[in-house]
Amino acid sequence: MTSTFDAVSAFDAVFAGRSGHFVDTVGRAEELGIGQWSAAPDWVDRELFIDPCDMATIDVGCGPGRLVAEISSHGVPAMGIDVSTEAVRQTRVRGALALRRDVFGVVPGEGRWAYALLADGNLGIGGDPVRLLRRLGQVLAPGGSVIAEVADHGLGLVRDRRRLRVDGRLSSYFEWAVVGLDAIDAVAEQAGMAVVGTASAGGRHTATLVRT
User: Fold this and answer.
1) Is the sign of the CA dihedral 15, 57, 118, 200 positive or negative?
2) How many CA atoms lie within 13 A of 135 on its CB side?
3) Which of 37, 45, 93, 113 gets the highest tally of CB atoms within 10 A of its CB?
């Protein structure tokens, strides 16, 4: 198989319903959680991401928008951003505000968001969690919080390059990272943040971080 399309187009295809897998540099494949991302929020989503957000919230890498739509339905100002046109379209269909944006580019409302969500592994965006958290420190209002999904203890910090395999085609490589509970304090410190709490539900874990 050869790389025939860019990673953003591959994500567009997956969000449109195509079967997709992450593939690492040695060929190991991991199925994407598109079913979960496209479904209605479950009790774990509510406990870890939705219920804590009672003020202006930005969902970074919002995907099809299950979280931002639910938060908005509670009367909380919320917006999703994603590099995928299809993800943004589906979020808007759910009735939520979403824009096609790269978090490292211009973000509307910068410096005024009370919460920034990094759900579904999105702490890995760009392959450098320290850089991403520093950027979100600029996006948040003073006293704001990042709620980031993290992996279980024992994983540490893993940085790698991935591709998406969609209908037998491989996308171009993109940088990704995974942060475990045992590594999030060190990552936060390097980003000028501190972990002020962790939570677990249904086998998933989050860390809440604030600027120091």
Assistant:
1) negative
2) 17
3) 113
- Collect all residues with Cβ–Cβ distance below 8 Å to 133 and sequence separation of at least 6: 123, 146, 148, 187, 188, 191, 192, 193, 209
Q: For a pLDDT cut of 70, what percent of the chain falls above it?
A: 98
Facing residues of 151 across strands? 180
Superfamily of domain 3-211: Vaccinia Virus protein VP39 (3.40.50.150)
41: its two tokens? 């929020």
**Cα-to-chain-centroid distance, residue 17:** 19
Q: Which sequence spans correspond to the domains of the chain? A: 3-211
Question: Tens of pLDDT along 40-83?
Answer: 999 999 999 999 999 999 999 999 999 999 999 999 999 999 99
Residue 175 has phi, psi (to 5 degrees) of -80, 140
